[in-house]
Write a structure and sequence with these properties.
With 348 residues, the chain is of the alpha+beta class. 36% of the residues lie in helices and 23% in strands. The strands form 3 sheets. Strands 1-2-5-4-3-12 form a 6-stranded antiparallel barrel. It has a 6-stranded antiparallel barrel with strand order 6-7-8-11-10-9. Strands 13-14-15 form a 3-stranded antiparallel beta sheet, with no helix packed on it. The longest helix has 79 residues, at 35-113. The radius of gyration is 47 Å and the shape is rod-shaped. The N and C termini lie far apart (140 Å).
C-alpha cells in the first residue's frame, strides 16, 4: 500500500478504535461488552491456533533440544566424573583398610615369634605354567635382605628368598613343587617334610610312619641350621587328609596352608631370627580355646560373688539370744564361729 493521505487517516482511525475498545473492556471489568465477541472469536480461531501450535511446537522443541544438548552433555560428563571420583575414593578406602589389617596381623605374628622382619610389598608374580611359583617384592640388598631368608605374612609361611637385587628380591613360594621345608607337629612334635603341590595344598611326609595324626592337627616350621633358610615356629598349615599307613617308612598327610598364595600383598622377610624357639606360640588360638577364655571371667565373677555372699560373720542374733542367769547377755551366735559372747548389762 502506498503512503497516501487516505492511508494515514485510515491508520489513525483504526488506532483510535483500538484504544476505544481497550478502554471499554477495562472499564467494563467482568461485565465487559466485548466478552461475547471475544468468546465467538475464541470458538472460531481456537482450532486454528491449536493446529498451528501442534505444527510449530515440535520444531520449537527440536530447536530447544539442540540448543540445550550441549548443556546436558556437560552435565552428564560432570556426573560421570563425580561418580568415578567417588568410586576411586571408596576403592582407596577399602584398600587402605585392607593394608592396615594386613600390617597389623604381620606385626602381631612377628611379635609373637620374636622375629625381626623387613616389610615389603608384592610388586610382581612369576609365571605359573612350567616355571616356579615366585613373587617379586620391593625390598632388596639395600634393605638388609640376603638369599635364603624366611618370608612370612600375618597368616604364616610364605616362602624363602632365592634371588636378591639392590632394591628387589625374588621369593619362591611354599606351594612350589620344588619347595621343601622341615615341619613339626603341634603337641606330638612329629617331624616331617612339607612339599608344595603347585596349588593351595602341601604334602607332608612324616618320618614316623606310625605317627598318630588326624584332621585338624597343625604344623609349624622346624627350623634350619643357622636359621637359614627357615626360622623355627612359623605356622605352616592344618592337616586336611591322612593317608592310611601302608607299611612304608614314612607317612604322607595332606595339609592346607594358612597362607593364600593367590592373594599376597604385604609380606615380611625375617632378617633377625628369634632368640629362642617359639615352638607353637605363633599358632593362632583354636576356636574352642577362645570360647573357654571368653567364658572364664563370667564364671570367676559368679564364684567370687558366691564367696562374698558366704563369707563374713553372721550379724543376725541367734534364736537363744537373751540375758542368762548371771546377768550377762548371750548374743546367740552358733558354734561355727568358735566363740561365745556374753556381756554384762551396760558394758561398752
Amino acid at each position: 500500500m502506498r503512503d497516501t493521505r487516505e492511508s494515514r487517516l485510515l491508520l489513525v482511525l483504526l488506532v483510535s478504535i483500538a484504544f476505544a475498545l481497550i478502554t471499554m473492556d477495562i472499564r467494563g471489568g467482568e461485565k465487559s461488552p466485548l466478552d461475547g465477541p471475544r468468546q465467538v472469536a475464541a470458538t472460531i480461531l481456537g482450532p486454528v491456533e491449536s493446529g498451528v501450535a501442534s505444527a510449530v511446537d515440535p520444531i520449537g522443541n527440536a530447536i530447544g533440544a539442540v540448543r540445550d544438548s550441549g548443556k546436558r552433555h556437560d552435565r552428564v560428563s560432570e556426573l560421570e566424573r563425580e561418580n568415578a571420583e567417588l568410586q576411586q575414593q571408596l576403592g582407596n578406602s577399602v584398600h587402605r583398610d585392607s593394608r592396615m589389617a594386613q600390617l597389623d596381623s604381620l606385626l602381631q605374628t612377628a611379635g609373637a615369634g620374636q622375629y625381626g622382619v623387613v616389610g615389603a610389598q608384592v610388586i610382581a608374580i612369576g609365571p605359573t605354567q612350567g616355571f616356579s611359583w615366585t613373587i617379586t617384592i620391593d625390598a632388596g640388598r639395600e634393605d638388609g635382605l640376603a638369599r635364603d631368608m624366611t618370608v612370612l605374612n600375618g597368616d604364616g609361611l610364605v616362602g624363602r628368598v632365592t634371588t636378591v637385587g639392590p632394591r628387589t628380591a625374588t621369593v619362591l613360594l611354599a606351594n612350589d613343587p620344588n619347595f621343601t621345608v622341615g615341619t613339626r607337629m603341634e603337641g606330638t612334635d612329629e617331624l616331617g617334610f612339607a612339599t608344595g603341590r603347585g596349588t593351595d595344598a602341601l604334602d607332608v611326609q612324616l618320618l614316623n610312619h606310625e605317627a598318630k595324626v588326624k584332621t585338624g592337627d597343625r604344623l609349624v616350621t622346624f627350623g634350619s641350621e643357622g636359621n637359614k633358610p627357615f626360622v623355627p615356629g612359623v605356622p605352616v598349615g592344618e592337616v586336611v587328609g591322612v593317608e592310611a599307613a601302608a607299611g612304608d617308612l614314612t607317612r604322607t598327610v595332606r595339609v592346607r596352608p594358612y597362607v593364600s598364595f593367590s592373594r599376597l600383598d604385604l609380606v615380611g622377610v625375617v632378617v633377625e631370627p628369634p632368640r629362642e624357639n617359639p615352638r607353637d606360640v605363633v599358632l593362632p588360638e583354636r576356636p574352642d580355646v577362645k570360647q573357654e577364655k571368653a567364658a572364664e571371667p563370667e564364671d570367676e565373677t559368679e564364684a567370687e560373688e558366691d564367696a562374698d555372699a558366704d563369707s563374713g560373720p553372721d550379724t543376725d542374733l541367734g534364736p537363744d539370744a537373751g540375758y542368762d542367769a548371771d546377768g550377762g547377755y548371750d548374743y546367740g551366735y552358733d558354734d561355727d564361729w568358735g566363740f561365745e559372747s556374753d556381756a554384762a548389762p551396760g558394758a561398752d
